[in-house]
Design a protein that fits this description.
Length: about 325
C-alpha cells in the first residue's frame, strides 16, 4: 500500500482549461440520468463563457490570478496542461467531464502542479470518487477549502488514466457511439448502441496475466483505479485511488443484460459469475484483438500492459 500525501496549500496562479463541448446533452433525458445516478446541476444552463467568467471572478476574490483556455481539438487539454509549469501556474483547473480530466491528467502527471476539477460532463465519475460537487459554486469552494493530496494513476502502454480501462464489449460500444450521436443523445446514445450491438457482437475470451504470475480469463473485463463505473454505481467496493493497486473485474459469462440488471440494482459485486482481483501489473494478451477504452475514450485494440503509478498526481479533494 502506498502512503497518500495530504496538505493544505494556498494557490497563486490558476490555469483554467475548459472543454466547450462537455455536457452538451445533459438534462435532455432526465429519466435515464436518474437511472444511472447522474446528478443534474444549474451550470449546464450557462454558456461556457459565463462559467469561465464565474470561476475567474471566484478565484480573484480569493487572491488567485487565473486565465481561461478553451480546448479546440482532441489532445489540446494535454498540451495546455503540459505548458502550465513553464508558465508559472501552480494550479490547473479542468472544467469538463472524465475525458477532459483524463487529458489534463496526462499533461500534469509527475509534476508539482495541483489538479482542481469543476465537473461539467455527463457521468463525472472521477468527481464522484473525489467527492467534488456538481454545483458550480460548491465546486469552486472545494478548490479553495479542500485539501491537496496525491492519488495513483494507471498507465496503459504510454497513456495514463484516472478511472478505469474497459476491455471488450463496453469499449466496442464506446467506439460505435460516434461524437455526433453523443452530442444529441448523451448517455442514451450508449444505451441504443449497446442494444444494437448485443444482437451482433461476437464475444471472445479475454486473457490477462496479473503481476506476471496469475492467468485469468473472461468475456469482458474492467480494470479500475476507483470504486465507481458509468455513473454513481459501485462496481469495485474495495478500490481506492491512493492504495497503490488496481482492481480487476472479470465477467465469466456473455450475459450482458444480466450484468446491467445487477449494476442498476447495485448488486453487481455479489454476482457469482464475476471474479475480482487486485494487481499492480496487468498484461492483456493479443488473443481476440479486443477493443479497449480508458476513461470512456476509445483507444484501439490489441495487447496492452497496464501498471499502477503510485502518487502520480496532486489533486484537490
Amino acid at each position: 500500500m502506498t502512503q497518500e500525501i495530504q496538505q493544505k496549500k494556498t494557490f497563486k496562479q490558476a490555469k483554467i482549461i475548459i472543454n466547450p463541448n462537455s455536457g452538451q446533452s445533459k438534462g435532455k433525458f432526465r429519466w435515464l440520468e436518474r437511472l444511472l445516478g447522474i446528478k443534474g446541476n444549474q451550470s449546464h444552463q450557462q454558456s461556457k463563457e459565463e462559467i469561465a467568467s464565474y470561476i475567474t471572478s471566484f478565484l480573484t476574490r480569493h487572491q488567485i490570478y487565473s486565465k481561461s483556455f478553451f480546448t479546440t481539438h482532441p489532445g489540446h487539454a494535454t498540451e495546455l496542461a503540459k505548458n502550465a509549469q513553464n508558465e508559472g501556474y501552480d494550479l490547473v483547473i479542468a472544467v469538463g467531464g472524465d475525458g477532459t480530466i483524463n487529458e489534463v491528467t496526462n499533461g500534469l502527471v509527475h509534476s508539482t502542479i495541483t489538479l482542481g476539477i469543476i465537473p461539467l460532463g455527463t457521468a463525472n465519475v472521477m468527481s464522484i470518487e473525489l467527492n467534488i460537487p456538481t454545483d458550480l459554486e460548491l465546486a469552486c469552494q472545494k478548490i479553495i477549502n479542500g485539501y491537496r493530496s496525491t492519488i495513483d494513476l494507471a498507465k496503459i502502454n504510454h497513456r495514463y488514466f484516472c478511472c478505469m480501462a474497459g476491455i471488450g464489449f463496453d469499449a466496442n460500444v464506446i467506439k460505435k457511439a460516434d461524437t455526433s450521436l453523443k452530442k444529441k443523445l448523451g448517455p442514451l446514445s450508449y444505451v441504443l448502441v449497446a442494444m444494437r450491438e448485443l444482437c451482433t457482437y461476437k464475444f471472445q475470451k479475454i486473457y490477462l496475466t496479473l503481476d506476471n504470475k496469475v492467468d485469468i480469463d473472461g468475456y469482458f473485463a474492467i480494470i479500475s483505479n476507483i470504486k465507481f463505473y458509468g455513473g454513481n454505481f459501485i462496481v469495485f467496493p474495495n478500490a481506492n485511488p491512493d492504495d497503490g493497486i488496481l482492481d480487476i473485474c472479470v465477467f465469466k459469462q456473455k450475459k450482458i443484460l444480466r450484468y446491467v440488471y445487477h449494476l442498476i440494482t447495485k448488486s453487481l459485486p455479489k454476482n457469482k459469475y464475476i471474479e475480482y482481483y487486485q494487481a499492480k501489473k496487468i498484461k492483456v494478451k493479443q488473443q481476440g484483438n479486443h477493443d479497449i477504452h480508458v476513461d470512456a475514450e476509445y483507444i484501439g485494440k490489441g495487447a496492452v500492459n497496464i501498471n499502477i503509478m503510485p502518487n502520480a498526481i496532486w489533486v484537490i479533494r
